[in-house]
Specification:
It comes from Kickxella alabastrina. This protein is an alpha/beta fold and 589 residues long. Helix 12 (329-341) links the parallel strand 12 (311-319) and strand 13. Bound molecules: glutamine.
Length: 589
């Protein structure tokens, strides 16, 4: 960094009392509010585990693995940041203990510390600070402006053994960057207990004491609670945690997560941050300021729309980890964004794929019938990505059902592959068609292992990240719904995460019967990326994961298509008509 380079301001977000209280949402909402001032905001997520990245973690443990443009497989919180801040992050924006130790150990082996004992303090803590500072200066926004502010979310809970080196690094970091460039938001829990539902401040007091004991003091206390602060709670927290009442924020359960920025803004977080970080001293052009203002208008309108009484659209999501919706968080967000942009409220019916299978009828007829009831009642069906054999036959059945009953269908990654399996088996007569992921030696391998993929190492070896897909130059592809939804462009850039692909050898046969591969990879043209079924209201499959690039104000096109079709508006939309009559604002933002 040159001597006159701008100093990024850092907002550290730590958590106390328990994990999973919504630090990520509070951190991204704060970032969004700073964006509405015209500031350029980036973010870093710290995960204090030894895995190098989230790629090898089960979605059951940590929720969905989020994929970035550069192929980084990261924590789902990075998805929140991308969606709220409209940025494109890189794998470096996700720090794990594993990455930091790997870096330090590699240096030790190279001899960089020759003669010294390598220790957690100072070597690990320095490596953390260097990393944060390096990444905090890198632009992640579309306009390429250097960040004014970097939000650093520290995973885990203050006091954990795992997060200790990071806390110590941040303690030192406040002096490295200076008081005006460092501020700390501590997210805590104010539980409501007892028959009368009294709010308790003790856990917050204890966690702030822990934090102070480690050398960090909160500038903002964000208190999660089921209800707004009762009388005197703010004052009590202020007194016992040694912060002024205006530094204490109630982040109670509210209408939707999109309301969190509204909640924080109403309680004056912008003033507190402006004063604390001397934000007024930053010189911003009138253009970026007014861009910020209009972002706020759009956001608050969007959040309010969420609260309105909208017609419901039923989408059946046929997956595997369906009792943990965090496993599909981006899919849920993409549905929600698309729904709100066509003025509909999405109701998701989670269908466990294996419940749709024949054997389940004998094993648990109730579940079987319930699952099929959801399918029959669905206005649209979505089969998201997945790994492993369990539930695959159920997913094939889901896609068959959608195909035969003209139910709008979106298949993502594995969801596209099962559509190919169904079509090959039931339309093209390849009765034993399968993916070699599940039947190594099958008679009709219609989905096969990609030649360049490494079979020996699991971490980071899939086809990952952003790759260009080119729409085909055929009559059908030119007029395809998918292409129109993408605005008629020739090429789309979406993110991938897979090892298997449609077997190029069967493409001709499938296409001749009506399953058209309208988008293929731009490099070779041999990799099937987007499929669309002939003579169907909406039957689209994508080998990539469109859900990673959805934005509240700019939903993913293929999800938009699903919602439009499921609410009977697709044809009007594609022929250039208005969507949803009761719209009171411009919808295509
Ligand atoms: N298991 C499939 C593959 O590796 C699908 C992956 C996915 O859905 N993300 O190709």
């Amino acid at each position: 960094m040159g001597s006159n380079a701008k100093q990024t301001k850092y907002i550290i977000v730590s958590g106390g009392v328990i994990s999973g209280i919504g630090k990520g949402i509070i951190a991204s909402s704060t970032g969004l509010l700073l964006k509405t001032l015209g500031l350029n905001v980036t973010s870093i997520k710290i995960d204090p585990y030894l895995n190098i990245d989230a790629g090898t973690l089960s979605p059951l443990d940590h929720g969905e693995v989020f994929v970035l443009d550069d192929g980084g497989e990261v924590d789902l919180d990075l998805g929140n940041y991308e969606r709220y801040l409209s940025v494109k992050l890189t794998r470096d924006n996700n720090i794990t203990t594993g990455k930091i130790y790997r870096e330090v150990i590699d240096k030790e082996r190279r001899g960089d510390y020759l003669g010294k004992t390598v220790q957690v303090v100072p070597h690990i803590t320095n490596a953390i600070q260097d990393w944060v500072e390096r990444v905090g200066n890198v632009s992640t926004s579309e306009d390429g402006r250097a960040p004014d502010v970097c939000i650093v979310e520290l995973g885990g809970t203050v006091g954990d053994i795992e997060s200790a080196p990071f806390i110590e690094a941040m303690r030192q970091f406040q002096f490295r960057v200076g008081h005006d460039n460092f501020c700390l938001i501590h997210v805590s829990l104010v539980p409501v207990v007892g028959a009368v539902g009294e709010q308790k401040t003790k856990p917050t007091q204890a966690s702030v004491r822990d934090l102070r004991g480690l050398g960090l003091s909160p500038d903002i206390l964000a208190c999660r609670s089921a209800i707004p602060f009762e009388e005197g709670i703010r004052e009590k927290l202020s007194m016992f945690c040694q912060v002024s009442p205006k530094q204490v924020f109630s982040v109670h359960d509210c209408e939707s997560l999109y309301h969190v920025p509204i909640l924080l803004r109403q309680q004056g977080i912008i003033d507190v941050l402006t004063e604390r970080l001397k934000l007024n001293e930053l010189k911003l052009s009138p253009e970026v300021r007014s861009e910020g203002e209009s972002l706020w208008v759009q956001w608050s309108e969007f959040a309010r729309r969420r609260a309105r009484d909208l017609d419901v659209v039923n989408i059946a999501v046929v997956g595997k980890y369906t009792y943990l919706t965090d496993s599909y968080i981006s899919v849920v967000k993409a549905l929600e964004h698309a729904g709100l942009n066509v003025n509909r409220k999405v109701k998701i019916s989670w269908v466990e794929a294996s419940d749709l299978e024949e054997f389940s009828m004998h094993k648990d007829p109730l579940k079987y019938h319930e699952a099929w009831q959801h399918m029959c009642a669905a206005d649209g069906i979505l089969v998201p990505g997945g790994f492993g054999e369990r539930g695959v036959e159920g997913k094939v059945l889901a896609s068959k059902w959608a195909r035969e009953h003209n139910t709008p269908y979106l298949g993502i990654c594995l969801g596209m592959q099962v559509a190919v399996i169904d079509f090959a088996r039931n339309v093209c007569g390849m009765t034993n068609a399968h993916s070699t992921e599940f039947r190594e030696a099958c008679e009709h391998p219609v989905v096969v292992f990609m030649p360049e993929i490494d079979r020996t190492t699991m971490g980071g070896t899939m086809r990952l990240g952003s790759r260009p897909t080119k729409f085909q130059d055929t009559e059908f592809a030119r007029n395809s719904k998918a292409k129109k939804l993408y605005g008629g462009v020739e090429e789309v850039h979406e993110r991938h995460r897979h090892r298997y692909e449609v077997n190029p050898e069967v493409v001709k046969e499938l296409e001749s019967k009506g399953l058209k591969f309208v988008g293929r990879d731009a490099e070779t043209g041999e990799r099937m990326e987007i499929l669309e079924l002939e003579n169907h209201p909406y039957f689209v499959g994508a080998q990539y994961h469109p859900e990673y690039l959805t934005r509240p104000l700019n939903p993913s096109p293929v999800f938009l298509g699903l919602l439009l079709a499921a609410s009977g508006q697709l044809d009007t939309y594609l022929s250039g008509g208005e969507i949803a009559k009761d719209v009171d604002t411009k919808l295509k933002m």
